[in-house]
Amino acid sequence: MKNIVIGVLAHVDSGKTTLSESMLYKCKSIRKLGRVDNGDTALDTNEIEKSRGITVFSKQAKLVYKNTNIYLLDTPGHIDFSAEMERTLSVLDYAILVISGIDGIQHHTETLWNLLQTYKIPTIIFVNKMDANIADKNKLINELKSNFSTSCIDFTTLNFSVMEEISITDESVMESFLETETISDSNIAHLINQRKVFPCIFGSALKEQGVEELLSILDSYTIQPEYPQQFGAKVYKIGHDEQGGRITYLKITGGNLKPKDSVTLIDKNGEKSIEKINQIRLYTGEKFSSEQCAESGTICAVTGLTKTYSGQGIGIEHNLEQKLSQPIFTYKVLILDKTDAFTTLSKFRILEQEDPQLNVIWNEQLSEIHVSLMGEIQLEVLKHIFAQRFSIEIDFDQGSVVYKETIRNTVEGVGHFEPLRHYAEVHLLLEKIKQGSGLIFDTICSEDRLDKNWQRLILTHLTEKTHLGVLTGSPITDIKITLVSGKSHIKHTDGGDFRQATYRAVRQGLMQAESVLLEPWYDFTITVSSENIGRVMTDIQKMSGNFDAPVVNGDISVLKGSVPVIEINNYRQDFINFTRGKGRMTCVFKGYFECHNTAQVIREIGYNPENDIENSADSVFCSHGSATVVKWYDVKDNMHLESFLKEKTEDLTPLITQNQVREYRSFLEQDKELLKIFENTYGKIKTDRYTVFNTPSKTETKTTTNYKTYEQDYLLVDGYNIIFAWDDLKNLAQKNLDAARHNLINTLCNYQGFKKCEVILVFDAYKVKGNTGSIEKYHNITIVYTKEAETADMYIEKTTKNLAKNYRVRVATSDNLEQIIILGHGAMRLSARNFKQEVDEIEKAIREIIE
Description:
Layout: E1 2-10, H1 16-26, H2 47-52, E2 59-65, E3 68-74, H3 82-89, E4 94-100, H4 107-118, E5 123-128, H5 137-147, E6 152-154, H6 160-167, H7 171-180, H8 185-193, E7 198-202, H9 211-220, E8 232-240, E9 246-254, E10 256-257, E11 262-266, E12 272-276, E13 279-284, E14 287-291, E15 294-295, E16 299-303, E17 313-315, E18 329-335, H10 341-354, E19 359-363, E20 368-373, H11 376-389, E21 394-396, E22 400-401, E23 404-407, E24 411-417, E25 424-432, E26 439-443, H12 452-464, E27 479-487, H13 495-512, E28 515-529, H14 533-542, E29 546-547, E30 551-553, E31 556-564, H15 565-568, H16 572-578, E32 584-594, H17 598-605, E33 619-623, E34 626-630, H18 635-638, H19 658-670, H20 672-682, H21 689-693, E35 713-718, H22 719-723, H23 727-735, H24 737-755, E36 758-763, E37 774-778, E38 781-785, H25 792-803, E39 808-812, H26 816-824, E40 828-830, H27 832-850
Parallel strand pairs: 1-3, 1-4, 4-5, 5-7, 6-7, 26-27, 35-36, 35-39, 36-38, 39-40
Antiparallel strand pairs: 2-3, 8-9, 8-17, 9-16, 10-15, 11-12, 13-14, 13-16, 18-20, 18-21, 18-22, 19-20, 23-28, 24-25, 25-27, 28-31, 28-32, 29-31, 30-31, 33-34, 37-38
Helix pairs in contact: 6-7, 12-13, 17-26, 20-24, 23-24
């Protein structure tokens, strides 16, 4: 007999579990036909599955029909549990896609179809609920052909016209059909296996209509894969039985497996271990039978393995690269009884093994547990599991969406770790890559510079940690991190040194980069009466969403588009109210895109990367026999290896060109007011003014570096922040604040004359009662005094957001939070220290003019 593994997939409430139940009953695998609404189906055995009438956990069952052993996998249909469904796709030979004859193709159905295409799984379509009066077979088959494939063919009766329709999917089959006017079962089976034909059966699972025809297709038109003699297996799920024993669910893909066999396991870090199989089980729901041998093509569960994980390959199989649905909500766990946090965390770790998408985060500083999930129904499931399985009462806070961060530009991150008798230095290249790629790690470091074993260790350290961004402390994504250089010490380096250096190099790179905050977006389909479509379109625009033109069909309008998850998440109840429950809205996760309200999110989260001691960007150097912490912005001045990236002189400290000097001379000669400021700042010009302002001769030999210019540059300066960050102005301000302010204004006037950029100097006046704020032009710069209740930070954030869309904008400030926010707007940050260096360089050039 042949063995085939079949997965049953569907949008929620399409009748998927009812179909599985009916197939089991037809094959006499169960004696009684259960019903979902009665809570007595063979496969939905969990209490929450029974109460809600939905499948939460994938279940397996074996049924025999004629000459075929069918291993059936019933998967969750609700979008909250789509990761559980996706994990089964890697072990399927065929899929049954169940579609409701009442609702037709729904949004999640399209997602499932696309996944089946991605995994190249041959698919049979069962259109359910055809006993309903409103089910229209002709309309449904046309919808399938239009939305899925023209090769969706009604297999209810294989007559001549159906054979003809099958034949046009393959040229050689068509030639044979034209000669014989028939198609062999073998040819049909191969067309289905090659995804050239998608059989469609119309029926009612509840009334057992069309189920026999479906089973007949599985027996007649499926092909068992060819399996090698060597042992291999794919792990698709981890679970625990009622006694707490660990169970590994797998598909045998080569040879066979027996109790007491030893298997070699390779973990995610490449380390090998050998474990022994205790028991082999074949499950149907909660019931199982013990087997003495599992042959190729079998779905089974084994006990005795402790180091397995979902997606793992055993024997000849390689580990799978699974791109599962990403959790988009995060919640803080609230422990309601007297159980301590560490005990609760240990239970979450058990569940995390079973469901890798349950991302559990332990915040050591706050002693808090956070979990990332797909939606609210998962919260109910977790509360139920903890109560029933672990006897722990938990709840969750309101939660928020999971943000992520990426970068716009390429940077080199350096990490150095050198306490006494320790040593490691790591240089990493951080590059922006294609959206949705996640994190990619690579090395191009020469083995002459750093031994291969150390390089492997660095790559391991990169993969083992969730690296956090510097805007909100959210995980980073869509970045390629490449090891470009590194250094060890022949005596003093151990593995932990490279861990520290690697983590610090990533953070140091992120602190330099132009970071971008990302948020999750949904694709939505909204169906409402035409009288409500205007309201819906207005609402979506307010949510910063976008959409195509609505499709109008009589009194019904359909709107499709995309919208930030956080905006539409609380919209459902309002939508139900104004459509009086008649509107329909489906949302499917689209991906992560740039956040629509970056500044607001950064401000609300209030993350300061420099205070995150667990994710430090600073390095540790050895100075005079003791460890010295060097701030991230000074690391490149102290690092032991050369930079991989050549410094770009157009960034924070551009050098002065002779052309700028000439322009400035001419500018001063024409503007007597600026000349007065010049002489007040730097003293009287001692030499002949004509000589000073004259165009320099071609014999000048001062070396220069090209400086990139833009059509229009803006520099925004946080006035008081700079005054109290520069020592000379700070000392002056302690005696006379007005004098310090006037000194800074004159300095910026001279600066603008050289740089020819738009300078906006902002001073706080937010504490002044009744102040309405003012903007004044002082010679060649603009000075802003903020209004009451508006800080300089707020004004700069607002102005940066508007200007950065079209111009090159830099902001001079040492306010860490403000630097992070303006980076999120696409501007460049210029620390007070770097700005001082730039101003000093210009002043040096100015003094050369007068001396």
